[in-house]
Each structure stands twice: as structure tokens, then as C-alpha cells.
Amino acid sequence: MRNHRFCAAALILAAAVAFGGGCSTKNAKNETVATVNGDDVKVVELREFLGSRGGVSAVTNLPVAKKKEGLDRLLAGRLLAQEARAEGLDNTDAFRSAVSGNEKGVWINALLRKEIASRVKIKDSDLKDQAKKMRGADNTLSGADAEARAGQAIAEREIRKVEEELIAAAKKDVPATIDTEAIGKIGNGGNVTDNAVLATVGGEKITYGQVRKVLQAAAPGPHGAEGLLKNPIAIRRVVDREATGMSLYAYAKKQGLDGSEELKSARAEMERAVLINLLAEKVIAKDASVTDKEVEAAYAGHGQMFIKDGKKIPLAQVKEQLRAYLGNAKRRKALDEYVESLRKKAKITVNESVLPKV
């Protein structure tokens, strides 16, 4: 896909982690907050999208209006994914390639969901103790708000523990062998080819070429990535991260996840994210060019934005950045208008009474 595509994460949550726990919210999280063309959006998904990791507790720091804005973005994602399937984009090489490339993440997400569902339990006594501490630190908190925030804090702590234990178990079961000598050679300016193996995990290899791609994506452009490509610390971090992912994937494949609801839901979310990107790219590819006249008009109309040290920055110095900004604005507008056209012909039901529970 082209670099100007919209990130699916801006439209939907690609990998929500849903699990049980939290006495006051265990039922609310599974309620349907909206339906779009027969596809339900649950409270847990919207909570995740709004920042409540795991969706176990209500997002008490946001007013209902902000929750509605988040829901609108989730609905936009649903509409785009549905339209993408209607146009047959799920039967393309681009779709199949993207799905295949994200398979590792699907299994890791499914494993995490399974472990959290079975291991994360919030005891009433812990919830009350944590809520009491929070009210002691902030006496303006209501009992309900303190309990909701306490649930989030406990859930976050327990999720981190599960993640750490899973990583440790995966690394023990499928250890990585890292060639520190080769990484050091790169840092010292030695000649290391792209096919040089920097680590092995089970039967899989991590090459310098793979690491280069990751670093170049993190710092695009010849000057941005130049230093990182020879930086042994940056290289080791990428190798460690990729090796951990490989260990988790191999470990997940051994945990009996085939046919599980966790795997099905993780794969469905990933496919939806891919479809959104494919359709968004198709929509925003139209009419996204920016003329010199448009750049000049924007520069003249927003002169206050181009002042540095009391002097106006010459157009030549900001022309291409301004062109990119205007291009992105055009693409966003095109996508928004497209989503609005889909809304007009869609059947959408929002359960307003459920929103306060989110």
C-alpha cells in the first residue's frame, strides 16, 4: 500500500483484549452499544477504543459526548470494512498478502486474550481497598468513580503481569540465540550483508535485512535512518523485539488455540483493519494532488503559522511540508465524505441508554 494510506488504528481498534472481571461492570461490558447493518458493537470494544485496556471498567473520565465521538469512529470503521467486502476487496492479492503478514499478531493477541480471560480476576476486597485509597487521595471522587478507577488500575496491573509471564514462558519454551558479535561488527562499521543472520528463534531467522527494513520504517529518509542502521543499541532492540514476537507466536501455536473464539475474534478484527486500509487507500487516491497555487494560498492565508524568531519563514523552506499537510487534509476530507455517504444508506442503531455505562 502507498505511504499516504490512513492508519486503521485511527478508525477502529485492531486488536481489542476482552476479558471477564470487575464486579460492577461484568455484565455491562457485553452489552450492545450500537448495531450497524446487523453488526454489533459491544461496550467492551468501545471502552478499549477509549483507552480502558481490557474494557473491564467504565471510562469514567470521559463525558458521554466523547464516548459518542469514539463510537462514531468505530461505526465508520465497520462501514468501511463492510463496503470493502461488498466490493470484493477481501478476494484480492493485497488482502491475502496483508492477512498473511499479520498472522503472527493474530495468534499472539488470541493467546493474550485466552490467558487474561482465565487468569485476570478482580476480587471485591481488592477493588474496595484500592477504591478506598483513591478516595483518600482525592476526596472529590464519588464511590462509583473511585471503584471504576480502581478496577482499571487493578486490571492494568494484572494484565502487565500476565504479559510479562507469557513472554518469560515463551522465551523459555522457544529461546532465541542472538549473534552479538555480528551486531557489534555492524556498530564498528564492518561489512555485514543483508542476509547475515543476527538471531535464530526455533527454526526461524532474523537477518540484518529484516532489521534494516524495521529501522528504515521507523526513521524514513536516507538521513533519518542512516545513524540507526549502524547503531548496535538500536539494532539489538529491534532484534530483541522481533525475537520475542517469534517466541510468542511459536508458543501460541502450542496452546490449543485452533478453532477458539479468541482466535476467531482476533482474526476478524485484523481482517477488518486490513479491509479498512484497502478501501481507504482506494478512496483517498482520488483527487489528492495539491497544486502550487493551493500551497501559495495556504501560505498567504496562514502567515502567522510561519513565523520564527519574529521573521516569516520563506515559502521555499516550507513548501513541501505544506503540500504534504494539504494533501493529507484532502485525503481526510475525501474519506470523511465517503463514510458519510455510507452512513446515509446504512441501518445504524445506537443504544443511547448504554453509552453512560461505557
What does this structure look like?
The protein is mostly helical and 358 residues long. The protein folds into three domains: 8-173 and 257-279, no CATH class; 176-252, no CATH class; 290-346, no CATH class. The chain is 59% helix and 8% strand. It is built from 13 helices and eight strands. It has helices spanning 43-49, 64-86, 93-101, 103-119, 124-137, 143-173, 180-187, 208-218, 222-226, 232-252, 261-284, 292-301, 315-345; strands spanning 32-36, 39-42, 176-178, 197-201, 204-207, 307-308, 311-312, 348-350. The strands form three sheets. The protein has a three-stranded antiparallel sheet. Strands 3-4-5 form a three-stranded antiparallel sheet. The protein has a two-stranded antiparallel sheet with strand order 6-7. β4 (197-201) and β5 (204-207) form a beta hairpin. Mean pLDDT is 86; it is low at 1-25.
Furnish the topology, listing elements before pairings.
Elements: E1 32-36, E2 39-42, H1 43-49, H2 64-86, H3 93-101, H4 103-119, H5 124-137, H6 143-173, E3 176-178, H7 180-187, E4 197-201, E5 204-207, H8 208-218, H9 222-226, H10 232-252, H11 261-284, H12 292-301, E6 307-308, E7 311-312, H13 315-345, E8 348-350
Antiparallel strand pairs: 1-2, 1-8, 3-4, 4-5, 6-7
In whole angstroms, the N-to-C terminal distance is 35 Å
Helix % is 55-70%
Low-confidence stretches: 1-25
How many structural domains? 3
Order of helices and strands: EEHHHHHHEHEEHHHHHEEHE
Mean pLDDT score, rounded?
86
Strand content: 5-15%
Give the tally of β-strands.
Answer: 8
Count every helix, treating DSSP H or I runs of 4 or more residues as helices: 13
Secondary-structure-derived class:
mainly alpha
Could you say which overall geometry the principal axes of the C-alpha atoms support? globular
Order of strands, widest sheet = 2-1-8
What is the radius of gyration computed over CA atoms, rounded to a whole number of angstroms?
24 Å
Mind summarizing the main beta sheet?
3 strands, antiparallel
